[in-house]
Q: What sequence folds into this?
């Protein structure tokens, strides 16, 4: 309370009194405040008394309250973790006892009766371990994950089943820090088998969520600037706000809507070529996509760029979700037909075929696997790029293979695949690759092979090493292929539908070598005077207007320059050459061999066409040196749209078609199958080839039909096919022999990559079985 | 001049000196009377007369008794009183509000929120614990009650201000009456008086009334020559030339509370915001308390929505078999973000998972909430149709009062997940809280009646507390409609702003108080009674009286001499 100054002059008693009263009141107030402060321990009672200090106090108070709660959390966590730790301590004693039993029961140190007694002892240890694993504390089964209200482990018929999950029960041990106060059974007892899972590369669809892009990192959305320019209308530049987009479809909608008013419009879709990114195509002209300052939305969406006639976005690497259609898996190639196929699953107790014919999405597959009642834990893997399958059973081994199709591989859950690392085989013991042993094969013709596998990493490397033994080249006889079965060229024609829609039927009846097949394909298109020069050489054409002329040195030594400018067809070229010296210098089209010929009866010297851009493109560069007028200079093969090559490394045919932007299809029949080229190339990109599959020769290794082992055949003779048993062949599961006389019969390997839980229960169960059966191995 | 003339002059002086002693006595008597204005006897020499060449005095005469008051100072005091009273009323309201909030005490709302979140932390630690789930739900109810109670107390505080206003209006009207009446009395008393402030006591009463009136509302007064005063507000009159008008209180409903405003009865002028205590109370009620109510409602509304957004994407210990949304749309055919919902959903989606209880197999579907403003956007009817198309084992209908109801077939149950649109929270589906603001926040009866519907999980078993983890720190999340401030930050700013405003008002009030004290000191110095001064005056008049009496004695002796000659 302020008191005003006393002015000079009168000083009435009332003024003195009132001032005294005010002073006394102020003092009393101060005393009362001090008393309150002392008794309450608080300096302030209302925030308005000292805003800054009060707000600091409030923030500190809030922080203190939260810290107190965190302290409570930590106490709770410690209680559970201490109990879990104490509960697990006896397990280590049990394992020591098991080791003693193992040592006591090894070899001849114990009689069969003693071994059975030891087995019974181990069984009781197992029961003890299960009992420990089922410990309940404060209403929670400690090792059940989030399924804490049910007994997590069941011992039944020599199998331990884990009914919990791998979930952590997290609590806050700091404001933003979580820590688990449990140890789930999968972790503590290794009660789930290693998950079978591989990246199955889901394609982008219109329903793909933005949050799932870039391996689940998502794209923080904002605005991007798009400019359409056809050079006629003023350039249309629009800032498009994508921030509320949820899916790829939403982005398509927003971008297209931004230009719906025209005059230029924009079409946005998933790139049908890669199926992994966006494609932006203006109705005319060019498109430019740019980020605004401080934003990377266009870059992250992979569509930054231009000006160009179309922008094809980069791979958006979407995560796998339960809603991903099966058709979108494996970059949009799907998982193969599910009709009559499916999965063969053996969990060590039960084997079942899981029919996937009703499945359309990943969720459907997961539910069918759950419904199969095979004690599997299924879901999306932690990388969110594949399906994950584990077994709940300790004491049984999980194998997943094909039921005649490619579904398991397509879903990335085949227990053994081409990408399986050798080091992972045989429950992680791998394959010895120190050079002490190699793959020793005695072929049916009696020859012995040693295949070095020291540098092999994966199963596919082993298969490749075996398949590389027999070379296949363009001169290889067809009869040598496919385990000597050859290619049934007389049984069917090759039916090719080109990208421009043209259908070709190629008769291969007379083909005997691989080169014959290639030639038949290369010469299949019509090569006559109507062929446009622009179509030649896979669409690169002939630069007749580029300044070069056909420079011909005739047999009489004279030189002729033929200007082909303006010519558009092969017939135009022939006509222009023939006009030089009608009847004497004669050009012709060799439709059979897809080439031009040039004859000259002017003399007996050489006939030469100088090499330049035009003559090379026409295949006419070169000389005819016989001096005989009747011998024409035969040009080189001139490629049109369709071309075939043989990839000797991959043992496969590669076919390219530049006729259009449609789909290149080769009809499925016995011939195309035997040549490994049945199928289609659907990208619409003329530069993308249709790559055929591996064409086996005589020694042939592959996965067996189920896909859980290697099988090997040899058509070199009619003797036995023998793979010497050693550390390598045994580890690969292919030791043994095929003693029949059928050269196409396979020596079938074993599954050497089953999945098994690796914890205490598996150890005890394995030990108990071994002791009971007297198996020292 | 003879003895008779001298006797007459001395006799008159006795009368004057007696009056002087009376005035001093009056002053001394009222020296402790609040608001008393000291009086002063003005005396002057009586007119002389000529007697031949001599001009003889005729003694002293009393010109009148005048109050010692500085009218300009009085005007300044009135103005400062208005300002001080307005500010003091505001300060008082701030203090009351701060007391109600008790942010530095144990009854603070922030403490209640922390307590609630602490209990959710306990659930995070042990999601399977039934008691902790029940505690969390119970603490949610306690918090909701605390919020409603706080709102109720603030409403009462606002109502109390209206009552206070009515009381002020009554008091002001009495003061108008008083001044009006005193005008008559003063005019009558001073009619034919010696000088214009003879009715000192009446004038003191009038000054007191005007002083108090100036505290209630800003006034200016002007004294007429007859001693009456005209009293004006800055925009109108209260008393004018024998006329007066009262203040009247009018009421209306504001934020659920009946509030009072003040007008002049006859001219209808609004005096609510002119100044004085009336202005302070009204601004305190409407801006301070009302503004806080708005902020509190904004905070609580977002508290409800943000908590519900997370809750609605989680799962409890069991799924729903039938559920009716807590929120009503105005029109089932209206686009959902324009359908009268308190919280508008945005473009996005949510997942519906339908579980067969017999097989344990669940099928999930994405329900797209198309609200992008391009083409046809989603209505409640559209959402109903989408739900019906999503899974054959659930049926969605719209109730007669425009709520969404979802029912599962026998042996099926359903849950929700990953709602990016907020539509579930908007429609009151799978929410923890119901209500729209601090007036009606409550725990959803579905959760209250069965804690198994407290959505602590995100797809796991009974010990899955992953949704509870999100709930436990939901108040740290940025909220778009709050300029990305978190709820904690928003509330801190709310309290901080309140504290700062309160401190500013207190500071302003203290300043005005000091100023007013200074003016009052000046007034006291000028108009207050100084006992020393009065004692001296009394002595002065006493001595003068004694001398005059002695003079009469001498004249009397002289008359005796004269008569004995």
A:
């Amino acid at each position: 309370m302020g008191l005003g100054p006393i002015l000079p002059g009168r000083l009435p008693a009332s003024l003195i009194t009132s001032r005294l009263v005010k002073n006394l009141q102020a003092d009393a107030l101060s005393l009362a405040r001090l008393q309150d402060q002392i008794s309450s321990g608080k300096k302030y009672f209302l925030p308005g008394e000292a805003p800054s200090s009060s707000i600091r106090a409030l923030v500190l108070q809030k922080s203190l309250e939260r810290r107190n709660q965190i302290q409570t959390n930590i106490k709770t966590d410690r209680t559970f973790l201490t109990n879990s730790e104490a509960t697990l301590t006896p397990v280590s004693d049990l394992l020591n006892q098991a080791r003693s039993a193992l040592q006591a029961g090894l070899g001849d140190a114990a009689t069969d009766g003693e071994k059975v007694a030891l087995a019974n002892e181990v069984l009781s240890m197992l029961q003890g371990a299960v009992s420990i694993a089922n410990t309940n504390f404060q209403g929670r089964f400690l090792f059940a994950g989030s399924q804490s209200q049910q007994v997590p482990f069941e011992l039944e018929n020599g199998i331990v089943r884990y009914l919990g999950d791998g979930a952590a029960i997290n609590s806050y041990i700091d404001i933003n820090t979580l820590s688990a106060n449990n140890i789930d059974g999968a972790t503590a007892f290794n009660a789930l088998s290693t998950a079978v899972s591989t990246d199955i590369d889901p394609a982008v669809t219109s329903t793909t969520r933005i949050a799932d892009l870039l391996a689940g990192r998502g794209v923080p959305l904002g605005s991007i600037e798009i400019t359409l320019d056809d050079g006629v209308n003023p350039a249309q530049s629009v800032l498009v706000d994508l921030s509320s987009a949820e899916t790829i479809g939403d982005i398509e909608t927003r971008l297209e809507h931004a230009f719906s008013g025209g005059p230029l419009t924009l079409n946005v879709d998933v790139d049908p070529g890669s199926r992994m990114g966006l494609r932006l195509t203006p109705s005319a002209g060019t498109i430019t996509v740019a980020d605004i300052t401080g934003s990377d939305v266009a870059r992250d969406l992979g569509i930054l760029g231009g000006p160009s006639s179309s922008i094809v976005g980069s791979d958006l690497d979407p995560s796998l979700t339960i809603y991903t259609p099966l058709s979108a898996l494996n970059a949009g190639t799907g998982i193969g037909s599910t009709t009559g196929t499916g999965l063969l699953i053996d969990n060590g107790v039960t084997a079942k075929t899981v029919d996937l014919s009703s499945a359309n999405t990943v969720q459907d597959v997961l539910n069918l696997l759950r419904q199969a009642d095979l004690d599997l834990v299924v879901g999306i893997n932690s990388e969110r790029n594949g399906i994950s399958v584990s077994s709940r059973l300790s004491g049984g081994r999980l194998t997943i293979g094909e039921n005649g199709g490619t579904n398991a591989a397509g879903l990335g859950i085949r227990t053994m695949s081409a990408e399986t690392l050798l080091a992972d085989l045989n429950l992680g013991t791998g394959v010895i690759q120190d050079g002490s042993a190699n793959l020793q094969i005695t072929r049916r013709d009696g020859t012995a092979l040693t295949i070095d596998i020291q540098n092999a990493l994966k199963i596919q490397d082993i298969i490749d090493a075996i398949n590389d033994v027999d070379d296949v080249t363009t001169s290889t006889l067809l009869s040598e292929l496919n385990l000597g079965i050859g290619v049934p060229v007389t049984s069917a024609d090759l039916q090719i539908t080109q990208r421009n829609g043209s259908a070709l039927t190629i008769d291969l009846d007379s083909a005997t070598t691989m080169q014959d097949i290639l030639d038949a394909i290369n010469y299949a298109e019509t090569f006559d005077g109507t062929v446009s020069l622009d179509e030649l050489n896979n669409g690169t054409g002939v630069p007749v207007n580029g300044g070069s002329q056909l420079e011909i040195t005739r047999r009489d030594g004279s030189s002729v320059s033929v200007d082909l400018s303006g010519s558009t067809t092969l017939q135009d070229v022939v006509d222009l050459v023939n006009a030089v010296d009608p009847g004497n210098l004669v050009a012709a089209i060799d439709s059979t061999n897809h080439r031009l010929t040039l004859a000259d009866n002017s003399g007996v010297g050489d006939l030469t066409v100088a090499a330049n851009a035009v003559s090379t493109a026409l295949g006419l560069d070169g000389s005819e040196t016989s001096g005989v007028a009747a011998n024409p200079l035969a040009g080189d093969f001139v490629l049109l749209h369709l071309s075939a090559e043989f990839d000797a490394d991959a043992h496969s045919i590669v076919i390219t078609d530049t006729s259009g932007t449609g789909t290149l299809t080769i009809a499925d029949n016995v011939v195309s199958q035997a040549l490994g080229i049945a199928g289609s190339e659907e990208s619409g990109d003329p530069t993308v080839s249709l790559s055929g599959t591996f064409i086996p020769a005589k020694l042939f290794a592959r996965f067996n039909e189920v896909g859980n082992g290697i099988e090997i055949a040899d058509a070199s003779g009619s003797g036995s096919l023998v793979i010497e048993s050693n550390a390598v062949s045994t580890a690969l599961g292919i030791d043994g022999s095929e003693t029949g006389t059928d050269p196409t019969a396979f020596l079938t390997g074993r599954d050497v990559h089953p999945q098994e839980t690796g914890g205490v229960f598996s150890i005890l169960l394995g030990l108990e079985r071994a002791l009971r059966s007297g198996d020292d191995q | 001049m003879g003895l008779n003339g001298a006797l007459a002059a001395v006799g008159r002086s006795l009368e004057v000196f007696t009056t002087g002693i009376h005035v001093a006595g009056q002053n001394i008597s009222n020296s402790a009377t609040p608001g008393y204005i000291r009086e002063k006897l003005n005396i002057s020499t009586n007119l002389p007369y000529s007697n031949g060449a001599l001009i003889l005095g005729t003694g002293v005469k009393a010109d009148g008794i005048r109050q010692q008051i500085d009218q300009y100072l009085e005007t300044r005091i009135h103005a400062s009183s208005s300002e001080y009273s307005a500010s003091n009323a505001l300060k008082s309201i701030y203090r009351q509000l701060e007391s109600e909030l008790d942010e530095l005490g144990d009854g603070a709302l922030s403490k209640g929120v922390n307590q609630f979140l602490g209990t959710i932390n306990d659930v995070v630690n042990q999601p399977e614990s039934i008691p902790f789930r029940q505690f969390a739900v119970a603490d949610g109810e306690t918090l909701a009650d605390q919020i409603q109670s706080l709102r109720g107390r603030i409403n009462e505080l606002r109502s109390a201000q209206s009552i206070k206003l009515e009381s002020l209006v009554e008091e002001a009207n009495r003061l108008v009456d008083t001044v009006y009446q005193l005008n008559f009395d003063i005019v009558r008393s001073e009619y034919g008086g010696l000088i214009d402030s003879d009715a000192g006591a009446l004038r003191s009463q009038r000054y007191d009334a005007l002083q108090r009136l100036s505290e209630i509302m800003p006034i200016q007064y002007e004294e007429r020559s007859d001693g009456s005063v005209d009293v004006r507000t800055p925009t109108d009159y209260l008393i004018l030339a024998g006329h007066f008008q009262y203040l009247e209180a009018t009421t209306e409903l504001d934020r659920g509370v009946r509030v009072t405003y003040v007008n002049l009865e006859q001219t209808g002028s609004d005096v609510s915001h002119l100044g004085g205590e009336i202005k302070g109370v009204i601004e305190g009620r409407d801006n301070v308390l009302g503004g806080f109510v708005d902020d509190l409602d904004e905070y609580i509304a977002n508290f409800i929505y943000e908590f519900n957004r997370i809750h609605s994407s989680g799962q409890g210990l069991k799924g729903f078999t039938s559920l009716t949304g807590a929120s009503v749309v105005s029109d089932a055919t209206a686009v959902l973000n324009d359908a009268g919902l308190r919280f508008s959903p945005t473009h996005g989606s949510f997942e519906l998972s339908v579980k067969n209880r017999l097989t344990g197999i669940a099928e999930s579907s994405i329900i797209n909430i198309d609200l992008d403003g391009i083409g046809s956007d989603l209505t409640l009817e559209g959402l109903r149709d989408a739900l019906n198309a999503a899974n054959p084992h659930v049926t969605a209908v719209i109730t007669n009062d425009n709520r969404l109801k979802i029912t599962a077939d026998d042996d099926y149950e359903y849950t929700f997940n990953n709602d990016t649109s907020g539509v579930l929270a908007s429609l009151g589906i799978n929410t923890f809280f119901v209500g729209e603001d601090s007036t009606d926040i409550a725990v959803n009866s579905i959760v209250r009646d069965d804690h198994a519907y407290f959505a602590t999980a995100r797809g796991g078993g009974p010990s899955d507390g992953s949704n509870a983890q999100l709930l436990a720190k939901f108040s740290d999340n940025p909220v778009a409609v709050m300029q990305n401030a978190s709820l904690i930050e928003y509330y801190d700013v709310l309290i901080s702003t309140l504290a700062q405003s309160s401190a500013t008002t207190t500071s302003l009030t203290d300043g005005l108080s000091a100023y007013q004290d200074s003016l009052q000191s000046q007034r006291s110095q000028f108009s207050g009674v100084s006992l020393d001064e009065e004692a001296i005056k009394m002595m002065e008049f006493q001595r003068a009286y004694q001398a005059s009496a002695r003079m009469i004695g001498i004249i009397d002796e002289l008359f005796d001499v004269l008569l004995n000659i």
In short: The longest helix of chain A spans residues 51-105. The radius of gyration of chain A is 40 Å.
